[in-house]
Structure formats: C-alpha cells, structure tokens
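Box 4.2: Ligand-aware structure prediction
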Amino acid sequence: MKDPIVAIATPFGESAIGAVRLSGKGVIDIAKRFFRTRSEIKPRYAHFGTLVDEEGEVIDEGILIYYKAPKSYTGEDMVELSLHGNPLILKRALGLFLKAGCRLAEPGEFTKRAFLNGKLDLAQAEAVAELITAKTELARRASIRQLKGELSRYVNSLRESLIELSAYIEADIEFSEEDIPTLTKEQVLGMVDKVLEGIDQLLKTAKTGRFLREGMRLAIVGKPNVGKSSLFNALLKEERSIVTDIEGTTRDYIEETLNLRGIPVVLVDTAGIREAKDPVEKLGVKRSVRKIEEADVVLFVLDGSVGVSEEDMSIYEKVKDRETIVVINKIDLGEVSLPLEIFEGHSIIKVSALTGHGLKDLEEEILKKAGALAQEGLTIYVSVRHEELLKKAKEILKGFKRTYGKEDISPEIAMLDIREAADHLGEIVGYITTEEVLGSIFSRFCIGK
Ligand SMILES: Nc1nc2c(ncn2[C@@H]2O[C@H](COP(=O)(O)OP(=O)(O)O)[C@@H](O)[C@H]2O)c(=O)[nH]1
Ligand SMILES: [Mg+2]
C-alpha cells in the first residue's frame, strides 16, 4: 500500500455535509487517533462519533466509514469522514491528518490509485472525471456507460481478436512443417476486416465525443442588422444579448452555452467583422475574428429580405472555407430572389429569428455537423485520446492488409504488426501506459477524486 493521502472531497462552501477522505497505509490508525466512537470501528459500517484535535477539543461530530483493502474505491485502506459542510471544520480536519503524517492528495490521485490497483481500467478512470464534469444528460449517460465498462469491453473484444490472430500466425511459423490446421489468407484478412469495422464504428463517435466533452463552438457572423443577435437569442430561447436597431451595437462578442439535444453548444454572437473605424470597434472586430477562428461551425447570416450585398460577400469570403451554414434570416418579410448558387458546397437554411420559423431545421443542421445524427447503435463516444490510438491501430492494420501474403513479408513481421495494433488498443484501456499519459489524464481531475 502507498503512502497515506488525504483530501477534502466536497466543494468549498457551506453545505449540509462535507467529506474528507483518506487512502493508503495506516489511515485507519491515523483516523482513530482523532475520531471517538462508542464501538470498535468495523470495516463497511457507519460509525457516529466526534472528531477531536490533539488536545482533545471537539471539532465536530459526524460519520466515519472504514473501507478495508482491497474492498475500497482505491483498493487500499480508506477512511471517509462525513462532517458538517463548513470550510472551517473541513480545513481543521485536513490539518489534523496532514500533521499526523498524511500528504495532500494530488488531483485525481484516488482514482489513479484505483487504476494502478486494478479497480478500474484507464477508460473507466477517465469516465469518472467525465461523469463529474458532464454538462448534459447525454454526456452524463455516455460517461456512466463508459464507467460501467462498455467502451472497455468493446475495445477489449477487438484487441482479443488481434491477439488470437497473432497466435494463429505464430503457430503457423512454429509448426509450418507439421500438418496442423492453419488459417487461410482469406480467413486472416477476414478477421482483420472485422476488427477494422469495429474500429471504424468507434471512430464514427469521435466527433460527437469531442463535442460532448468540450462543447461545440458555434460563431454567428454576418454584417450589421441581418439579425445575428436576434438569432442568438432565438436559439437560446431567452433574451440575453442586446438587440437594437442601431448598427454595430454588439461591439464585442457574447458567449452562451445551450444544450442542443444533449450536445453542449457554445454559441458566440460576434461583432460585425466589417472594416471598423473607431478603436473600440476595431478591438471588438479583432476579438470576433479570433472567435470565428476558434469555431467548429460558422453560422453565416444574411438578411433574406434585402438580398446579398458586397459587404455580405466580403464576410462570406472570410468564412467560406470553414464548416459553414448559410442562414437566410427574416424570411417573414418575404424573400427577394437570392443568388444561392454562390454558396455552393454549404447548407442553406431559411429562418425567421422573429417568428422562430425554420429554427428546428437549423438546429437539425447543426446536429448533423456535430455528427450527432449519424449515431446508430453505439452509445459510447470515444475521446480524442482514444481516437488517436484507434487511428494508429487502423493504419497498421491497413498496412498489414496491403502486404500480407506477399512474398516480401515474412509471417514474423506480419505478427509484429498485429501485435502493435493490439498494443494501441490496449493503451485505450491502459494495459500499457506511461507516467506521462497517466499524468496528463489524472491532472485534469479534481482534488479528492
Ligand atoms: N422581421 C424580422 N426582423 C428581424 C428578424 N431578425 C432580426 N430582426 C430585426 O432586425 C434588426 C437587427 O437585428 P439584430 O439581431 O440586432 O441584428 P445584428 O446586428 O445582426 O445582431 C432588429 O430590429 C431585429 O428586430 C427576423 O427574422 N424578422
Ligand atoms: Mg448584434
């Protein structure tokens, strides 16, 4: 068991309950020095008692639960103290345990220990942090599924197919003189294809996975008065942004997050990106341009009642190489005929921010861009880290397919390819990791988790 660590596990502030948790060598003895109970402390029982300091002064009363290794979250001896949720009390408790030989836990250290002790695999450990930070129901659902091992099982089954395959190829090498059944070239390639199919299924979820975790950034652009702020508000379904008849009021950008059928969407209402004269507006324009560069999707808004002007086109030029949706607004005012063919290659949606007409179609189009509508069957969404590893495995397997069975590739080399692809899949669940990978994963956790 590792050195004892301690952390406050609940948010800082007044609350009904505040929790302090300890894990590692000797934590039960440390806890017993400061926690008075009537009965002997037994593992997995809730004990009511008082927390006292070195002088015996009562700090608070609360509940102590002792989890004896290996039946605990971390797999080590653990103690969880539920006290009253006052920062003063929790800080005193923390101070006591630090003085008694515990070390303050690093972010995610409890979960890291759980992983190192085999309580969770790496994909499950990642899901813990995602469950805590999930912003929408869909994100929460996806994280709990990943925590329950759905992604791990899927990846493991692909990895096992590859290991099985490499065993066949290995047997082929060792017993090539003997008359034992081996796989035909077609069978080998068939197995690889099955794994590739599985990898592609997972890769299809990557885009949505990224948006679920990081939010999808959407910038609304267009010349003044086309209705950007109105559209922004209509999409948010509440009046937050300032709407006026005077051109150029939204000098800076305004950002709000909305929940688009489970996808957290960060909506940015930008200032017009026209040539600004006064310095304040110039600054706003500059910031807007940055917001547009950061955006995953751009909503380019036109006033459909007046047509397309040169100013519209100069803005369109700036965004047309991006993932863009052309939004023709104010269609309630009647439409002049628009040269829509100039926007070829982009989807065009007609709306009225005023009446709400067409907004559902626009939302649908945004979801399509998020890859969220293409989702069938799978209810897990891979992360950027998983995606990179899946792509590496895929490349190796594709290379294998190109060369397998040809004169210039020996079965030994073929087997190494299969093994390497299996290893990349193994990295997803953490069979193979480096301190660096673990560091980057667990540093994103909160302290006490
Ligand atoms: N009739 C009509 N007016 C709209 C619509 N959208 C916006 N407007 C009006 O157009 C003007 C400019 O809107 P605003 O949202 O401030 O435009 P922005 O400068 O692009 O942000 C305001 O008077 C809005 O009420 C719409 O769909 N139909
Ligand atoms: Mg505006």
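In the box above, the bound molecule is magnesium ion. The longest helix spans residues 150-174.
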